[in-house]
Design brief:
The structure is a homodimer of 128-residue chains.
Chain A lengths: L2 E7 L5 H16 L7 E6 L7 H10 L4 E6 L6 H17 L4 E4 L9 H17 L1
Parallel strand pairs in A: 1-2, 1-3, 3-4
Helix pairs in contact in A: 2-3
């Protein structure tokens, strides 16, 4: 195993919200049409695993290149400071592994299409 | 003007985060390939306009059908209770207008594709 994706969410006191993230990671992991040999998730706070633990777990299972994807909509302290700090801690534990941070979710150029698709389908459902 | 889309975010103490939402709404509003005559945004708290004010503003400019789209990743109290309550308040102010709530962003079936696209492009940038 070589390439891994770590989906990083804030973490919530509501178990259901954390389970939504775990389900997303499982669905991504189940796909065989991606560049990633494995997909897992980690949390900045309030849930486990932590980001360093998530990185260490992927490295232990053979990952040599890890992309950390912040599942965040806005660029705040979490995205700019806290996640990079946690990733830096993870890198120290597994210096042989390359760990890169992807743009946070809200930066996706596909977000406009996704929002329109959701809104249009609701509009059609109401109109029909 | 008939159909409108109101993008609803949580609202932040960071002006930049609120401006990201306003920019998204402006970009959606500028498109001419959608069902919506106008797109605007509103905030649950910490920023303006409020959801009832956003609904009233759209109604005043001629909207008769409004889709409220929660720009939220997780199904929590905000999505299940607070936004519906604010929308109900808005409906009372403009009873002649139809106001429907779309699924929240995190429920989009396109989310997996969007995440993969972000992760793959980062992976390619690192590998190249």
């Amino acid at each position: 195993m070589n390439k891994a994706l770590l989906l990083v969410a804030h973490g919530s006191r509501r178990p259901h919200s954390n389970d939504e993230i775990r389900s997303l990671a499982r669905q991504l992991n189940a796909r065989d049409d991606t560049s990633f040999d494995v997909v897992d998730c980690a949390f900045l706070e309030l849930a486990r695993p932590s980001i360093p633990d998530g990185i260490a777990k992927l490295a232990a299972s053979g990952a040599r290149h890890i992309i950390v994807l912040p599942y965040f909509l806005a660029a705040g302290r979490h995205v700019h400071e806290d996640i990079p700090a946690e990733v830096a801690t993870g890198r120290q534990v597994v210096p042989q592994v390359t760990v890169e941070i992807a743009p946070y979710l809200g930066q996706s150029t596909s977000m406009l299409e996704l929002l329109l698709s959701l809104a249009e389908s609701t509009h059609r459902a109401v109109a029909s």
